[in-house]
């Protein structure tokens, strides 16, 4: 029967049924979506959250490398947590905040330093944590360090403890500070690759691996100088915290092979007899000792404890503060290598970092800006763009204070010049005021393979900058002139900022790296101190020292990124892994990530003129 032949009542009934059926389907779909969202919300936001057990121990167990800023976006970090891969990082400010809050928290009875997973970090970061630990000890609460072994970084923190416990099969392996690199000159010659290097500065050693097979005498002198300052500072910190002479520690390090032989290879007993640890205790004995000290957690079958992340969540201190209203000092972190464009956290992009400075400048509540620089430098062009943003902030009446972290060298110093004041830690690595550029060519290699490049161009420069052709002498002169011009610009920026002549700056520049304490004596920095002191000084300069807030200016994650991060939250991941094909993916992704992480730092060099104010020093 055709529809037009249907009884009108039947047609009306059929239409009504279709409306009813569609409505039912819609309601059912909405209920399903609601249930799925409800389950996800329950998984993402478990009821109640963590609580601080009364009389518990705060367990400080930093994992990976200590950093001023976590690498990657919120979504990137969530994906790494779910799928694995990437380098573990611990935010220094989180550790310091937790320790300082726990000092006055009646629920925290003691602090445990579990340092087995600490991979290292700049000396300035270790000293920040050490100061917080000493403040905690000042409250009368006990600090206990426990570890299977200790190295330079972990022992500096452990030295602050009331007790240092070492596994009976462990060791205290202190090495000191070193600077070793690989050199490629002979390899490049064998491969018939010509590396054209353009630089200014006797001590600008970043390009030496392509010119030599060993470290130059100038680089050896400069490196030993700042390494010696760091080693002296490390010895002084450990000696003061542990209460033993620095000479005793040096004797342990330099005589280590003989001491081990005397103890028939027993590394733990060697450390104990040298006075570097208090007792040899395994994990089972440690657990029982802590139960006696703070009580037991019957549910977890261990001692009462709470980790740093859980503690910060419990007291509402997750993330950095962004208070609104009232006069404020804005803090912006500039960590990583300096490149152009927009970069994620853990890298410095001229556009992204410049946008953060601009945000602070345009905020009427912000009276001063503290730029925390932890960078070995990078693109000279990008460094200048960031410096201009700082200069514009000063023109608009904002006070700009630089606080140098572990490294603020080369381009990291360039961006620091437009400031009212520069602070550095005594162990900051800074200076390296110099410029370089590089361009590889390999026509000789291609010729050996029977491959030849040829063609025509409308001008002598057309097609001149090709790696498959010899670099014309005229272009070499042009590039060297650009490098020398960049160096003059650098010297003039520093001279104007520091109240020195260009000649005076040139004498302490030449690409040489200095420790913070030397840089202070030379006039490259104004004051020695940590970030907290730099913030206080910025408030004083701005005239708001009596009443101000500290506001961290960071890149804001979008709602999509927040949603991805929550969906990939570890609690959700734990619930979903048994029910899908995630396990197979988990096995594959880390391998791919390891391959990607092997890319060299040179892949980031993107200066439009090929001019770099960069020092190849450790970033963290």
What's the overall geometry? Answer: globular
CATH class category of the largest domain: Alpha Beta
Count of all domains: 3
Main sheet: strands, sense, barrel: 8 strands, mixed
Q: In angstroms, what is the radius of gyration? A: 29 Å
Helix run count = 23
For this structure, the CATH topology of the largest domain is 2-enoyl-CoA Hydratase, Chain A, domain 1
Give a verbal description of the structure.
With 620 residues, the protein is α/β, with parallel strands linked by helices. The chain has 23 helices and 25 strands. Strands 13, 16, 18, 19, 20, 22, 23 and 24 form an eight-stranded mixed sheet that branches. Strands 9-7-6-4-1-12 form a six-stranded parallel sheet, with helices on both faces. A three-stranded parallel sheet has the order 3-2-5. A hairpin with a 4-residue loop joins strand 10 and strand 11 (302-303). Helix 2 runs parallel beside helix 21 (559-567), helix 13 packs parallel to helix 14 (380-395) and helix 17 crosses helix 18 (502-508). The longest helix is centred in the first third of the chain and has 37 residues, at 8-44. The protein starts with 7 loop residues before the first helix and ends in a 6-residue tail after the last strand.
């Amino acid at each position: 029967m055709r529809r037009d032949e249907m009884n009108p009542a039947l047609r009306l009934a059929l239409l009504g049924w279709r409306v009813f059926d569609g409505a039912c389907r819609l309601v059912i779909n909405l209920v399903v979506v609601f249930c799925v969202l409800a389950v996800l919300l329950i998984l993402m936001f478990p009821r109640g959250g963590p609580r601080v057990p009364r009389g518990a121990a705060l367990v400080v167990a930093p994992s990976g490398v200590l950093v001023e800023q976590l690498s990657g976006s919120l979504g990137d970090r969530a994906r790494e947590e779910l799928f694995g891969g990437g380098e573990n990082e611990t935010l220094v400010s989180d550790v310091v905040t937790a320790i300082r809050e726990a000092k006055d928290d009646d629920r925290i009875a003691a602090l445990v330093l579990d340092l087995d997973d600490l991979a290292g970090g700049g000396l300035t970061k270790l000293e920040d944590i050490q100061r917080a630990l000493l403040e905690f000890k000042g409250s009368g609460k006990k600090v206990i360090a426990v570890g299977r072994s200790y190295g330079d970084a972990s022992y500096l923190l452990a030295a602050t403890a009331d007790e240092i416990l070492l596994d009976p099969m462990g060791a205290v392996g202190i090495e000191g500070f070193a600077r070793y690199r690989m050199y490629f000159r002979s390899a490049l010659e064998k491969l018939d690759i010509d590396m054209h290097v353009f630089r200014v500065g006797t001590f600008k050693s970043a390009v030496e691996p392509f010119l030599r097979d060993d470290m130059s005498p100038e680089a050896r002198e400069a490196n030993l100088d700042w390494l010696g300052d760091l080693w002296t500072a490390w010895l002084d910190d450990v000696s003061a915290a542990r209460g033993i002479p620095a000479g005793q520690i040096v004797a342990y390090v330099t005589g280590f092979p003989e001491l081990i032989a005397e103890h028939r290879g027993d590394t733990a007993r060697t450390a104990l007899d040298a006075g570097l640890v208090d007792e040899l205790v395994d994990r089972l004995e440690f657990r029982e000792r802590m139960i006696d000290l703070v009580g037991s957690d019957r549910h977890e079958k261990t001692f009462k404890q709470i980790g740093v992340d859980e503690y910060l969540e419990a007291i509402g201190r997750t993330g950095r503060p962004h208070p609104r209203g009232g006069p404020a000092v804005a803090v912006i972190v500039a960590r990583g290598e300096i490149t152009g464009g927009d970069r994620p956290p853990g890298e410095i992009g001229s556009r992204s970092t410049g946008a953060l400075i601009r945000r602070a400048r345009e905020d009427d509540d912000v009276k001063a800006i503290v730029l925390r620089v932890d960078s070995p430098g990078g693109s000279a062009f990008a460094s200048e763009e960031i410096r201009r943003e700082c200069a514009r902030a000063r023109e608009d009446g904002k006070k700009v204070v630089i606080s140098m972290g572990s490294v603020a060298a080369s381009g990291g110093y360039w961006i620091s010049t437009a400031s009212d004041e520069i602070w550095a830690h005594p162990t900051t690595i800074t200076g390296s005021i110099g410029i370089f550029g590089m361009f590889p060519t390999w026509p000789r290699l291609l010729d050996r393979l029977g491959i030849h490049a040829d063609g025509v161009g409308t001008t002598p420069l057309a097609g001149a900058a090709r790696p498959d052709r010899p670099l014309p002498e005229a272009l070499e002169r042009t590039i060297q002139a650009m490098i020398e011009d960049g160096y003059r610009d650098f010297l003039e920026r520093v001279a104007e900022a520091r109240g020195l002549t260009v000649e005076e700056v040139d004498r302490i520049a030449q690409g040489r790296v200095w420790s913070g304490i030397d840089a202070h004596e030379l006039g490259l920095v104004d004051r020695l101190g940590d970030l907290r002191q730099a913030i206080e000084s910025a408030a004083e300069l701005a005239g708001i020292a009596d009443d101000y807030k500290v506001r961290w200016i960071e890149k804001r994650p979008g709602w999509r990124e927040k949603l991805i991060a929550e969906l990939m939250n570890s609690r959700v991941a734990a619930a979903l892994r048994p029910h899908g094909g995630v396990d197979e993916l988990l096995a594959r992704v880390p391998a791919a990530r390891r391959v990607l992480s092997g890319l060299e730092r040179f892949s980031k060099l993107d200066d439009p003129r090929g001019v770099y104010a960069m020092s190849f020093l450790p970033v963290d």
